[in-house]
Amino acid sequence: TAGEKQARIASISTMLGREKPGDPVKGKAIFTKSCGACHQLFGEGGKVGPDLTTADRKNRGSLLASVVDPSGYIRPEYVTRVVNTLDGRTLSGVVTAQSTDAITLATYTKDKVEAVTLPRNEVDKLSDSGLSLMPEKLLDTMSEAEIRDLFAYLASDDKPKPKEPLTPNP
Question: Which pTM was predicted?
């Protein structure tokens, strides 16, 4: 419910403010696994969802709201469309290309994005779903440390680089 989502946002925000910042290098790996199929950051990742490089990533409240309630606001170009075909199939995804002859959807299934192209003459109905392609409760599968790491990466100013081990002077 909306109240549960607000409580979850408040809880995570409190935890992020209370605990020490996470490790952006570890956060990059979490981003790649959990978000990178659809979102780009620093030129890496998919293009099904918004590019997060220029997003207001330092605004924790806004970022948390987008992650916890991905359907709360969906930019028009990322609205999930539902396609009902004449042979009885139902597909959903983000329209990535369309012409008078075909429509291509980016679908997200089993942790990967796939492109599905359908001839227009096979489409019975095309409608907006009102839901984001981004799954809800994404953060619920992560530990607090992983959430801190992910948000450290999201708020970072550049691609994080692993720390070089110190080498003793000869």
Answer: 0.83
